[in-house]
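Posting for a labmate who doesn't have an account.
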Amino acid sequence: MAPNILYLFQIFKMKALLYLPILLLFGCGSKEKKPELNFFTQVEIQSLMEDSVSVRAIEIMGNNLAFAANNGVYGLYDPGKDKWNTNVQKYDSILPEFRAVASTSTDFFMLSAGNPALLYKTGNSGNMELVYKEENEKVFYDAMAFWNDKEGIAMGDPTGNCLSIIITRDGGQHWKKLNCDVLPEVAEGEAAFAASNSNISVQGDKTWILSGGMRSRVFYSPDKGETWEVF
């Protein structure tokens, strides 16, 4: 049987084929046309890369597209040059499965799922540097995001009685896991929601995290992870 080929990234070019003029009624019965609205009825798809790796997270970095996948594979696409640069990140004999990526204005980050959890950032040498490692039979990280160039957050399944949340305050060079005494306790069967790096949302200082499993709730922090409540 031929292997399944995954189309990783696609650029969509929309063609406007239809429009609909809208009429509004104003005082004294006068009528005036609103601007024309374009409706898209056709999509063109361009395949940028074909491979059998499983990509769970992508990140726009300036004009480039970065990704991290299973089997330790990660890469960067430069649309200006229509060029891919890919590599493989190993840890000892392990080929990590990366589920979460994020970036600042200067660095790219990728975080693996499963035990051990491995978090890499762009290094000054041009290679990825390991900046956080966690070993636990229950460890499983799902998502990562940055509030700004210095402060970021990642989350995953509970290893105790709370969600696993790690935070950096120095641009991703060091990460610290929050103690369960500052986090809401998880319910029975509650865990992280494996949603391809999409279950953390940040806006300003605010943070929302969606859990899943046997119970789904929203964990909220108004102050970049200093305090938390759950809904």
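Reply:
Got it, the structure tokens are right above this. Residues 6-27+90-230 form a domain with the Neuraminidase fold (CATH 2.120.10.10).
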